[in-house]
Structures are given as structure tokens and as C-alpha cells.
Amino acid sequence: xxxxxxxxxxxxxxxxxxxxxxxxxxxxxxxxxxxxxxxxxxxxxxxxxxxxxxxxxxxxxxxxxxxxxxxxxxxxxxxxxxxxxxxxxxxxxxxxxxxxxxxxxxxxxxxxxxxxxxxxxxxxxxxxxxxxxxxxxxxxxxxxxxxxxxxxxxxxxxxxxxxxxxxxxxxxxxxxxxxxxxxxxxxxxxxxxxxxxxxxxxxx
Length: 204
Fold this sequence. Notes:
alpha+beta; Glutathione S-transferase Yfyf (Class Pi), Chain A, domain 2; 8 helices; about 55% helix; transferase; GST_C; glutathione binding; glutathione transferase; EC 2.5.1.18
């Protein structure tokens, strides 16, 4: 079978989620660069892969997908390698809850309202950052409450929940605001310290 293709950009949190899943499964793939922030706009051909012009998109043997969670689940089930979906019904439901929470409440606050605002704005909006940090604190409290005993969010098994959280947390920790808040959540800090040492994370 042909190598799967990921369409997207290195800077994207959601492209990185898919790339982490592929790396953890040991799947070789091709990354086709798509810069949705390019001055000339999104390439016209790309809308055949993602009708909304977002990244990532994915293709495998003529089968196309968009939406990160759908791609991640497909990769886990389509390829050999360690299973990233829990067998236990409740553990799987908790995994889905964590992923949904991250998409709805963590990505915007941690990445855009805190990290991007601090890193890329000449005069950051401190009110926006403050609101982002308050939301991020709630996210970290919930992750602490949901985390099962063991090294990973759901216990002994690394799952899609860990790999979905990783790029969001990594971006948040690029700034001192994020580092200070994270340090107040010892269980999640320890989880991150373990995860950050995995070859898939270290490779970018």
C-alpha cells in the first residue's frame, strides 16, 4: 500500500497531533506542505482535500479524510503498532471526553489567547492572556481530576488523549505564563515530563 499523506504545516497543533499518532504507530508517511496563512491564500487545489480549507487533511490509498480526531482514529485502526484506543468502554468514553474538552476549551485559550498572544504580538493583550490563563487553569484542574493512576492520562496505556493533549500543552509551555501555571499541577507536570521524553515528541 502507498504511504499515507498528511497535508498541513509544521506549525499547526492539529497537524502535529496526526503526526504524533503516525509516529507512535510506526507508520512512514509523506507531509505535503499547506500554509493556510500564506499571503497568497489557501491553494485552490487544497479545497478538494478539505472543503473548509483547514489543516490537516489526510489520504491513504485514495481514501481521504479531514478532521483530526477522525484521522487519528483511522490511523490507529488501519495500521499495525500499539493500540491507542482503550478497549474498556468507560476508559474510551473518558478519552473522547478529554479530546472534546481539549478542542472546545484548551486549544483556543492555551495556544492562541496565551502562547500566540505572548509570543507574536508586539503589545500583547493582557486581558486576553488573563482570561486564557483562567480557562487554562480550569482545563488543568479537569485533567487532574480525570487522570487515572499510572503514567498516562488513562493509566498504563498511552492513548489518543495523550497525543491530542501533547501539542497543545507544548505550545502553552513555550511561555513563562504557561510554565508557571503548569507547575501548580504536579500530576499533569509529571505526565508531561514523561511524555516529552518519548521519541515521537522529541522528534518534533
